[in-house]
Amino acid sequence: MQEANCIFCQKTDIILENDLAKAFWDVHPVRKGHLLVVPKAHYATYFEVPAATRVAMDHLLFDARDLLIERYHPAGFNIGVNVDAAAGQTVMHAHVHLIPRYEGDVPDPTGGIRRMIPHAVKKLLRH
């Protein structure tokens, strides 16, 4: 089931897909190659996604990782899910962020995403 007014349901510039999930570039990337993996059917949050669809999303995450390694040669990855507005979810269609990480993209990557986000926001504000 799809929602007529959901931008993720209507997304057509698909990078990868399987029967239950699709992947596309994030329109507000924090790193080159930042992808979103979403269920093809509309579920508002990750916790609403049925188990079989979560498995399909997980398989697509691995396929997307392989694509990003081949195309961009990242040194690592962050995988993240924001659930509901209080946690930062801005599009109410379940999605998983796959963010490639590169040597030197932040001065100290210790703490992963906790350190990357403030740095990325400062960088975006300068542009």
Automatic annotation (TrEMBL):
Sequence motif Histidine triad motif, residues: 93-97
Start and end of every HIT domain?
1-108
UniProt keywords (A-Z) are:
Hydrolase
Q: Does the keyword Hydrolase apply?
A: yes
Question: Which SUPFAM superfamilies has this protein been placed in?
Answer: HIT-like
Question: Which Pfam families would you find in this protein's record?
Answer: HIT
Designated name of the protein: Diadenosine tetraphosphate (Ap4A) hydrolase
